[in-house]
Amino acid sequence: MPKRQKPGLHYVAGTVLLLGLLFAVETWIGWSALLRPWLNLAPEYLIAGIILIFLTYGLRALRVYDYFIADTRGQFGVCLRLSLQHNLLNNLLPMRSGELAFPVLMSRCFSVPVMRSVPGLLWFRFLDLHTLIAFALIVISEPFIGQTLGAVLGLLWMSVPWLAFRLTAFWQARLARHPGRVSNFVQRILESLPQQPRLFWRSWLWTLLNWSIKLAVFAWILTLFSNIPLGTAWIGATLGDFTSVLPIHGVAGAGTYEAGVVAGLAPFGINPTEALQAAVNLHLFVLGCTLLSGALSLLLPALPAPTPVEVNHD
After folding, report:
1. Measured distance CA(20)–CA(284) in Å, rounded
2. How many CB atoms neighbour CB 187 within 10 A?
3. Pair 225, 281: CB distance under 8 Å
4. Is residue 75 helix, strand or coil?
5. Dihedral through CA 158, CA 160, CA 166, CA 167, nearest 10?
6. pLDDT for residue 309 is more than 60
7. What's the pTM?
8. DSSP code of 245?
9. Where is 301: in which H helix or E strand?
10. CB count in 10 Å sphere of residue 217
11. Is the C-alpha dihedral spanning 48, 50, 51, 55 positive or negative?
12. What is the pLDDT of residues 34-72, one digit of tens each?
């Protein structure tokens, strides 16, 4: 019985966070005052931001397409639709429940079993989290821990994905020497992770490109709604995205996303009201891009085109 109630509690918690954000904004800032800067925002800035964010969506779809190339070859349009809809559900549903859409869509669109799609998704999320931390270290190293120590920690941290890749091969070799039900199950999972160095490097490259563009755009959007320096805005944008991995996550990230951005800006002396206003407007931009891309995904093919069958007339 408790297992059935748990998803409901997640949605209740997410809704409470959303209502809490709406109340906090109205009390401290006022929604009309918060939204007023949009009237003065140059349309070309908004269009440029949307185009760049759509570019990151394409890079995420390319990562999926490349990783599962044996199943997705020649069907990038379907893969892009899948990635956009996964992103839509992931951003709108609370507690990361939207992640469940990925294995379902991979099975429906490309007949990829869960035992392959879920480990692949976990690998993507590992690379995402690693990259977020790496970019945060780049910005905070000099003011907080010194440039030299920051460079050493940065180099050590950047080696983590490669070490994880090498450990995968190590554990596969060890498990092969101890066959059994559990061993075979773990081996099947490990076999769904990158097996070739080229696939490892490509999946990491798509991740780095995606996040470098995404965080740069988000930091820039924060500066459009505040007087926050770009480097400081980068930290706020990074902490905002970090909240997506928290066990408590609001509906559409409401409340938790803003809290992450404000927490990232707080050590730099940014006024909390200004930080909250910029954070909410950034979140509205993110949700707007998410909804627009989700709507446009309906124009893309839903299933792979059937392979033509050659007819022998002899």
Report:
1. 16
2. 16
3. yes
4. coil
5. 180
6. no
7. 0.86
8. G
9. none
10. 23
11. positive
12. 889 999 899 999 999 999 999 999 999 999 999 999 999
Tens digits of residue pLDDT in 218-273: 999 999 999 999 989 998 999 898 887 766 677 778 888 998 999 989 988 899 89
Tokens coding 183: 């061993």
113: DSSP letter: -
Q: How far apart are CA 164 and CA 108, in angstroms?
A: 30
What the block records as the tokens of 87 is: 């992103």
Kind plus residue range of the DSSP H or E element containing 234: helix 230-242
Supply 64's token pair. Answer: 């999926």
**DSSP annotation of 268:** G
- 10's tokens: 């997640």
Cα angle value 14/265/215 (rounded, 5°): 75
Give the C-alpha separation, 314 to 311, whole Å.
9
Separation of alpha carbons 49 and 55, rounded Å: 10
- Give the number of residues written for the chain: 314
Structure tokens that stand for 51 in this block: 């185009």
**Residue 111: phi, psi to the nearest 5?**
55, 35
Count of CA atoms in the C-beta half-sphere (13 A) of 184: 3
Number of alpha helices (DSSP H) and beta strands (DSSP E) in the chain: 14, 0
Are the beta carbons of 190 and 113 closer than 8 angstroms?
no
Residue 118 CB neighbours (<10 A): 18
What amino acid occupies position 178? H
Asked whether 54 and 293 are in contact (CB, 8 A), the reply is yes
DSSP 202-267: HHHHHHHHHHHHHHHHHHHHHHHTS---HHHHHHHHHHHHHGGGSSS--GGGTTHHHHHHHHHHGG
Estimate to the nearest angstrom the gap between the alpha carbon of 102 and the chain centroid. Answer: 13
Catalogue the E-assigned strands of the chain: none
Residue 138 CB coordination number (10 Å): 15
